[in-house]
Amino acid sequence: MTIYLPQLTDDPQFFPNVEKALQEPDGLLAIGGDLSPQRIFNAYRNGIFPWFSAGEPLLWWSPSERATIIAGEVHVSKSMKRFINKNHMSITVNHCFSSVISACAMPRATQAETWISEQMIDAYIELHRMGFAHSIEVWHEKKLVGGLYGVCVGQTFCGESMFSQMDNSSKIAFIALNQHFQQAGGKIIDCQMQTGHLKSLGVQTSCRDSFIQNLMVTKDEAIKTTCWDQQQIKIQLTK
C-alpha cells in the first residue's frame, strides 16, 4: 500500500493539520523540511515533534494518543521517597544542556542505536541558546548521573528524552522538573509516548484532540521569568 505524506515547504511556519496524521504508522504527519530552530519550535506549538533515525529523511509526528502529566501531580512512591532521602543528589537547571542531550543520545542496553543524531543535537543546542530548550541535571558526588531535556512552550513543557547512569536518577530529574515547573506557573508536561517508567510517575494518556486543546490554551501563557535561570533546586517530599 502506498503511503502519501505531505512534503514540508521552505516556510518554517507550515505544517499540515494534525488531524491528517496517519493511523499506521500512528501519528506520522509529514516529511522533509529542516531542523531550523524556527521550524522545530513551531512544530511544538502545534503538537508536532521530529523523530527519525540517522540516514532517514526528516519525519514529523503527532500521535493519536499523548502521554502527559499535570504539573505538580507527579507520583512519588514510598520507596522513591526513601531513596531520595538516603541518596543525597543535587539537582540543577540549565547547567550543562549539551552534556545532557549528549548523554541522552548514547545507545541504551535495549537498543543498538539512537534517534538523537548529531544533526538533532546541534538543532536543540541552538534552541537552548535561544532560550527555548532546557535541561534538568542530577549530580552525585559532583558527577552528572542523570537528567532530561525538552522545549518549553508557554505553560507546557515538551519533554524529549532522559538518561540515567545511576539507579532512579532519571526519575529524580522528572520529579524535580514536575515540581519546579508547577511552582513557576507551568501547567502541563508532555511526555509524547507512554512507558512503564513514566506511568509509575503518574503520567497518563489522552487523545490527541484533548492534548491539542490544552496546548492551545497554555502555549501563549507566561511562566515565571526565573524558571529557566541556572539554579539548584530541591524535591519537596510530603510524608
TrEMBL record:
It holds the Pfam family Leu_Phe_trans. SUPFAM superfamilies: Acyl-CoA N-acyltransferases (Nat). It catalyses: N-terminal L-lysyl-[protein] + L-leucyl-tRNA(Leu) = N-terminal L-leucyl-L-lysyl-[protein] + tRNA(Leu) + H(+); L-phenylalanyl-tRNA(Phe) + an N-terminal L-alpha-aminoacyl-[protein] = an N-terminal L-phenylalanyl-L-alpha-aminoacyl-[protein] + tRNA(Phe); N-terminal L-arginyl-[protein] + L-leucyl-tRNA(Leu) = N-terminal L-leucyl-L-arginyl-[protein] + tRNA(Leu) + H(+). One of its GO terms (molecular function) is transferase activity. It is an enzyme of class 2 (transferase). Its EC number is 2.3.2.6. It is found in: Cytoplasm. InterPro entries: Acyl_CoA_acyltransferase (IPR016181), Leu/Phe-tRNA_Trfase (IPR004616), Leu/Phe-tRNA_Trfase_C (IPR042203), Leu/Phe-tRNA_Trfase_N (IPR042221). Keywords: Acyltransferase, Cytoplasm, Transferase. Belongs to the L/F-transferase family. PANTHER family: LEUCYL/PHENYLALANYL-TRNA--PROTEIN TRANSFERASE, LEUCYL_PHENYLALANYL-TRNA--PROTEIN TRANSFERASE. Functions in the N-end rule pathway of protein degradation where it conjugates Leu, Phe and, less efficiently, Met from aminoacyl-tRNAs to the N-termini of proteins containing an N-terminal arginine or lysine. HAMAP family: Leu_Phe_trans (MF_00688). This is Leucyl/phenylalanyl-tRNA--protein transferase. It comes from Psychromonas marina. The lineage of its organism: Bacteria, Pseudomonadati, Pseudomonadota, Gammaproteobacteria, Alteromonadales. The gene is aat.
